[in-house]
Amino acid sequence: MDSINLPSRKLYRLTVISFVVSAFLHVVAVFAALSMLQPGLDVNRPILERASYVAENTSLWRIGWHFWQLVALSNLIAAVCLVLYFLDAKRAQVSRARLPFVWSILGLLFTVMAIIPEQWGEFAFVTSFVEEAREAVRLGDASAYVRWEARWIVLTTSCGAFGYTLMQLCWTLALITYHANQRSIKVFILLSGIDFVAFLLSVFACHQACAPVLAGQLEYVDFHYIAVLNGIGFPVLFIWMLAFTARLGDQHHEYFAEPNRGLHHVTFPTQARARWLAGSLNSPGTRDVLRLIGKVIRTPVLKSDIKNVLYLNWLVPTDSVRKWLPDGFELDEYESLTAVSILTYEHGGFGPRMLGPFRKWLPSPRQSNWRLYLKSKHRNSGEVYFFKTCMNSTPHVIGSRLMSDGLPSHRTGAFEYEVTDRAGRLELSAQGGSAPELVLEFKTAPDSTKLSEKWRQRFGSWEQAVDYLVSQNMAVDSLGGWAPRMESKIDIPIDPTEAIPVTVHGDLQCAMVQELMPADQIECFAFLIPEVAFRFLGESISFDEPSSELSRTGRISHPAEE
Q1: Closest Cα to residue 264, out of 530, 480, 548?
Q2: How many whole angstroms separate alpha carbon 208 and alpha carbon 206?
Q3: Which one in 18, 49, 131, 353 has a CA-CA gap of 20 to 30 Å to 193?
C-alpha cells in the first residue's frame, strides 16, 4: 500500500448533504405537483376548466412551481459539490479520481443546459401564463391558451428533463469509474438503467404528445404515457439519489479505512434470516445518509432497567490491543498495561423513555459490550471504546447499526446467560457470524475483595478498581471519512458499593482474550451489579480535524487493486 493524500471530509459532507436534500426536495415537489399543479395540467379535463383553476388558484399554482424551482437549484448545488469533491480528490492525487472528475464536469454542464429551458418555462408558468389563463376564461376561447401551455410543457418536461437525464447518466458514470469494486454496485447500476430508460421515453412521449397542439390542434395525443413513465422515473430517482450518495460514501470511506475496521464488520450467523442485510449494515455510506436523516428525526432518549451486569476485566499489555483502536485515540495505561472489559447483562423494558410504563411490553435482548478504556479529552468523563458489542436479537442489531454510530452490534448465535444466587454461566457463540465466542462459569464471592498484585499496583484497592471500571459515561469512535470523532453519551449510575465480587472457575474459553497475553498470565477481575437503570442520551460529532497531517494523509488499498 502506498502513502497518499486523502479526499476532503468537508467536501464529502457537503456533497452528501446536497444530494440528500435534493432527493427529498424531489419528493416534496412531486407531491406539490399532484396536489397543486395537477388540476391545471390534467389534459383529460376541458381546457377552460384547466385555465379556470390556474386563474382562480394563482397562489397554489405558483407555489407548486416554486418547489420545482427549488429542485432545479438543488440539482445545481449537488452538481457543483460533486465537481468540487472530485477536483479536490484529483488535486490530492487520489487514485481513480481523474475520470470521475471529467464526468462530474459534464454532469454540471448538462445540469446548466437543463436548467435554462426548464426555468424559462417555469418562470413563464408563474407569470405570463397566469394572465393567459385569465384571458382565456374571460373570452371563453382556449385556442391561444393551450398552445402556450404546450410550449411551456415542452420546455419543462421535454427539454429540461432531457438535460437532467444526461446529467444523471454522467453522475452514474462518475460513480462507476470511481468505485473500486463495481460488483458491489450492481443494484445501483440497475436503478440507473431503469431511470435512464424511463426518463428518456418520457422525453420522447412529451414531444409526441405536444406536437399536435403546437401545430394548431386543441388535443394532446397519448399524454397519459408521460404520467406513467414519470410515475416510474421519479420514485426510482429518489432511491437512486440515496443509493448514489451511499455508494459514493462507501468508496470515499475506503480511503480512510483503518486496520481495525474488520472488528466492526458484521456477518450474521449461518442460520439467521437477515444475512442478506449485512451488506447494507456494513455500508458506511448508507450510515452517512441515515445520519443526516437522523438530524431531522431525532433519536429519543432510550432507557432500560438492566439486571445482572457481569463485569469481566483484565489488565493486558497495551501493545496487544492498540491495533483495535482507531487513529487519534489513546489508551489509558499504567506501566504499559491497560484494562479490557466485557460487560454482559439483560435488558428490561428497553425502549424510548417517553413510553413510560409501556416500555415493559417491549422486547429486551441480552447484550455483551467489549470495551477499552481511553484517556479522556473532557473533564469528569470516562471514555470507552466498544470494539465489539453482541446481542441475541436481530431487530436490535439492525436498529443499532442503522441508527447509532457508537454501537457496532453483532448478532450472536447462542447467547446463554444464567445467574443464580451464588453462581452463573455465560456462553456466546458465533455460529458462522462475526460475534466473538466466550464460555465461562463463575461464582459469587461476597467476601472476596482482595486484589491481585497487578490490580493493586494499578488501583490501590478493590473499591477504587470497581469505581474506575463502572464510572464511564461516554463511548467514542472515529467515523472515518465523515468526521474524526463521535461521542455517544450514556448514563449508568452505578454505586461501586453495590458490586458483588465474582470468581471465575475453570479455563477461560475466549480466543480474543487469550491472544492478548500468555495463558499463565490471564487473570480475571470480576464482579456483578444486580441491577441499574441505563439511559442512552444521544450522540454528537466533532468535525475538528486533528492537528497532525493524519487528517489529509493516510494509507489505503483497494480490493480490486491488491
Answers
A1: 480
A2: 5
A3: 18
C-alpha–C-alpha distance, residues 242 and 283, integer Å: 13
Q: Cα dihedral sign for 267, 264, 299, 19?
A: negative
pLDDT of residue 408: 83
What is the distance between the alpha carbons of residues 78 and 240, in angstroms, rounded to a whole number? Answer: 14
Q: Are 255 and 212 in contact (CB under 8 A)?
A: no
Q: Which residues of the chain have pLDDT under 50?
A: 1-3, 547-562
Closest by CA to 162, choosing from 222, 116, 220, 100, is 116
The answer to whether residues 247 and 285 touch, using CB atoms and an 8 Å cutoff, is yes
pLDDT at residue number 562: 31
61/558 Cα distance (integer angstroms): 51
pTM confidence score: 0.88
- Give domain limits for the chain: 3-255, 260-543
Cα(57)–Cα(55) distance, integer angstroms: 6
> What secondary structure, in 3-state letters, does 168-226 show?
HHHHHHHHHHHCCCHHHHHHHHHHHHHHHHHHHHHHHHHHHHHHHHHCCCCCCCCCHHH
Q: For position 262, what pLDDT does the model report?
A: 82
Of 2.40.400.10, 1.20.120.1200, 3.40.50.12500, 3.40.190.10, the CATH number of 260-543 is: 2.40.400.10
